[in-house]
Write a structure and sequence with these properties.
Length: 232
Amino acid sequence: MAQNLYGPRVRIGNWNEDVYLEEEIMKDFLAKRDKGQLLIQRNRRLKENLLRPMQLSVSEDGYIHYGDKVMLVSPDHPETEADLFLRGDLSLCMTPDEIKAHLSNELEVPCGLSAAQIKIPVGRNTFTILCAAGEVIGQVLRYGQNFRLGITGGFDDRMLYLSSDHRTLLKSSKRSWLQEVSLTHEDSYLNCWQPAFPDPQLRLEYEGSPVPNLFWKGSRGGCSHLSGFTQS
């Protein structure tokens, strides 16, 4: 007479392999947690760096100097198509790709830019006026003089430069159709800028004059149009 040889405690199938697989998954999870490689840990570090409070430079003479930490803000003003764009004072901010940022401990290159309604200086919107060719830190920046805009994004060992290439039929900003602007780690002529007086008819008269600390004039048509800057 046949008897049932299997009791409630008898394991069937590939139970041993399943146990080892669960143990390997747990070991891999603990190893990544100890190294800080979990997605939630990388996401937390990225937000902490990008939203790290920064201190802007205080101008005693009312002018911008090499080495100053500044924000690039486009003030709110009415336009014909204002309903198509974000209203309010918009500051230029770095916007790294979220998926790529979770897969690496470093910022992606090139890194995108966007405009945000934030007036508090943090890691993602605080730029540094950098020397371009032999200038001295602390020297007054003048109209028509070369300089670079660098940003660390809240990281201590990373510097990205604001760069832009000429507009082509195949490469331009998506909404404004002007030249694209991005952040890159390469030091080249593409990230060499010059401050220009807002009124084109007075630019020759103001050539060589000190740049006041409120000279930024942006465009609501897209972040890629920097009407306060011109590339040298």
